[in-house]
Design a protein that fits this description.
- This protein has 191 residues and is mainly alpha-helical.
- 73% of the residues lie in helices and 0% in strands.
- Helix 1 packs antiparallel against helix 2 and helix 3 runs antiparallel to helix 4.
- The N and C termini lie far apart (65 Å).
C-alpha cells in the first residue's frame, strides 16, 4: 500500500486505529498509576490509624502509671490495671501496618508495660513469688535448709523499688516509641 495513494476511507481507518491504541494505552497507564497511588495512600492511612492508637495507648498508660504511683505512695488500694488485651490488638495493628522500627519499639514498650504490671501486682499482693529449689534435671529437690525470710516491710520495699524501676523503663520506652512515630508521621527518615 502506497501512502500517496490512500483513499480518504483508508486514511480515516488508520487514524481511528492509531487514536484507539493511544487512548487505550493512556487509560490503562493512568489506571495502573492511580491504583498504585491509592494503595499507598490506603496503607499510609492505616499506618497513621495504628500509630494514633499506639500514641493514645502510650499517653493513657503514662497517665495511669502516674495515678497508680501516687496511690501506692499514699498506701491506697488500687483496682486499676492496664488492659493488656487492648494493647495486644493495638500491637497487632502496629505490626501489620507500621514500620519495622516502630513495631520493634512497640514490642519493647509492651514488655516494659508488662513488667510494670507484674511489679504492681507484686506490690499489691496479687502475686506471691515462691522460690523452689530444683536439681539439675528440673525436679524438686529435698527440703531446703531454712532460709531467713525477709520481713514484710523488706519485701514491700523491694517490690516498690521494682515498681519504680519498671515505671522508669516503661516511661523510657514510651518516649522512644512516641519519638519514632512522630519522626515517621513527619516523613523523616531514621538517622
Amino acid at each position: 500500500m502506497d501512502l500517496m495513494n490512500l483513499t480518504p476511507v483508508q486514511a480515516t481507518l488508520i487514524a481511528t486505529v492509531v487514536t484507539t491504541v493511544v487512548t487505550t494505552s493512556t487509560v490503562a497507564g493512568t489506571h495502573l498509576l492511580t491504583r498504585a497511588r491509592e494503595r499507598r495512600h490506603l496503607i499510609w492511612n492505616r499506618r497513621m490509624d495504628a500509630y494514633g492508637a499506639a500514641v493514645q495507648s502510650c499517653v493513657a498508660l503514662a497517665r495511669m502509671r502516674q495515678e497508680i504511683a501516687a496511690r501506692v505512695d499514699r498506701g491506697s488500694d488500687n483496682d486499676t490495671v492496664p488492659d493488656m488485651t487492648a494493647l495486644g490488638l493495638v500491637g497487632a495493628q502496629v505490626e501489620m501496618f507500621g514500620s519495622r522500627q516502630v513495631a520493634d519499639l512497640w514490642n519493647q514498650f509492651f514488655d516494659a508495660v508488662h513488667s510494670w504490671t507484674y511489679a504492681l501486682d507484686l506490690v499489691e499482693g496479687r502475686i506471691r513469688v515462691v522460690v523452689v529449689a530444683t536439681d539439675s534435671f528440673g525436679l524438686t529437690s529435698a527440703p531446703l535448709p531454712p532460709i531467713p525470710e525477709p520481713s514484710a516491710e523488706e519485701k514491700q520495699e523491694a517490690n516498690l523499688r521494682r515498681l519504680d524501676a519498671a515505671g522508669e523503663r516503661a516511661t523510657a520506652a514510651d518516649a522512644r516509641l512516641l519519638q519514632a512515630i512522630k519522626r515517621e508521621a513527619r516523613f523523616q527518615r531514621p538517622r
